[in-house]
Amino acid sequence: MLLNQPVFRWIHKLMDQFDTPILCIRLGPSTHVIVVSSPDLACEFLKKQDEIFISKPDVMSAYLISDGYLTTAMSPFGEQWRKMKRVINRKMLSSPIHKWLQPKRDEEADKLLWYICKQINKQNPGDLINVRSVSQHFCGNMIRNMIFGTRLFGQGTEDGGPGDEETEHDALIDERIQMWNNGARKGKCDLLDVLINLEYPNLTPEEIKAQIIELMLATIDNPANTIEWTIGEMINEPTILKRAAEELDHVVGRDKLVQELDLSKLNYLKACIKEAFRLHPFTPFVPPHVSIEDTTVGGYFIPKGSHVLLSRFGLGRNPNVWTDPLRFDPDRHLRGERKQVVLTDEELRMLPFSTGKRGCPGMMLGMTMTTMLLARMVQGFTWHAPYTEQRVDLVENHDDLFLAKPLLAIAKPRLPSYMYPKY
Ligand code: HEM
């Protein structure tokens, strides 16, 4: 296995060779790794039997990242996972809190336009915008603003991006705890204030720090990777970009910036995002689920302690499920009865957020951020390949599912200049 890098490509090649949607690899005497790439089996694991496949692997890297399994995503099944998942679901990402934090997200959506404009202005018209970097900054700033009430911890860079000091969370958290203890801070303004003041259950400073790092990691790469691929696909298929821009003009107009309330009406735009989730997931697999009992799935005996890898890559590109699976075709999500495009799939033909007890608690926030990022980028700008090229190079990395090179493109404002926020 060590010789067959990257392992995820080797595993999918094996599944193709054996023409199977489920594969078991034995690691050492007792660990069974089970890979799944069909919707029926995914439903068995994540819907019918999700109470059995509810744990996570006990491995050193997860232990260290989560400061000894203090957090949600990395922790094996148990009381600590239950406690932190409840805190996230009920106290951090509930609908009322989501609404409470909307002004911070609105601020970041406006700053996104300003940030792109600033880069266009200081460049020659033919110079390029790094779409990956713009998307990552947007997501990073947004989660920082919601958690810490500030988008940049220090001065940031000259062009409005984050500076080196952005990683210094712990000192900020300690300082804030101190402010609450000595009465210097009284009103709750952000998620950090909420976490510090929780009573049932109470969180230790270590739990707060570890959980915040995990949430920041969970929030940045998924939306940013999705939008980088979507813009790339749109540049190479200008009719898709044109349809998305026309939808924005029709639903929102050109004299108002798209707002969160508009997002549910942008069906074509959502279909583009859903297509990027299907074809270009951020990771090949959902993080492993570990079974806590012996069981049988699809007629196969699965021993307790098995590691199940649900393949986002294998499901999204499964030719038995999707026609012409390698083609970026948003229209495939607009066919059929359903009038509203939703970014998840009931039948688990793709797994953007996974589902069940270990499913993503940040779905509402993740969908809002991803859709707003694309909506503002398409409403505010036209996007083109560099002048010397006809198309952008949409080559996937060999070792992961990122674009091999960050997407560089030309952006031109498409709204009247007074529409772009200035700071
Ligand atoms: C487009 C955005 C996002 C996508 C595509 C996404 C996707 C996922 C996926 C696939 C999982 C694994 C679920 C499983 O193991 O079955 C997950 C877990 C998780 N996500 Fe997200 N996520 C996104 C945004 C967010 C945000 C914004 C947050 C929080 C601020 C978040 C917090 C978490 C947490 C805490 C878990 C672990 C849940 C558990 O193990 O019980 N995610 N996410």
Automatic annotation (TrEMBL):
Ranges that cross the membrane: none
Gene3D superfamilies in the record: Cytochrome P450 (1.10.630.10)
Single annotated GO MF: iron ion binding
Any single GO BP term: secondary metabolite biosynthetic process
Binding site for heme: C360
PROSITE patterns according to UniProt: CYTOCHROME_P450
Protein keywords: Heme, Iron, Metal-binding, Monooxygenase, Oxidoreductase
Pfam families according to UniProt: p450 (PF00067)
Family listed: Belongs to the cytochrome P450 family.
Protein name: Cytochrome P450
Domain of life: Eukaryota
Named cofactor requirement(s): heme
PANTHER family associated with the record: CYTOCHROME P450 98A9, CYTOCHROME P450 FAMILY 1 SUBFAMILY A POLYPEPTIDE 1
The keyword Oxidoreductase is annotated on this UniProt entry: yes
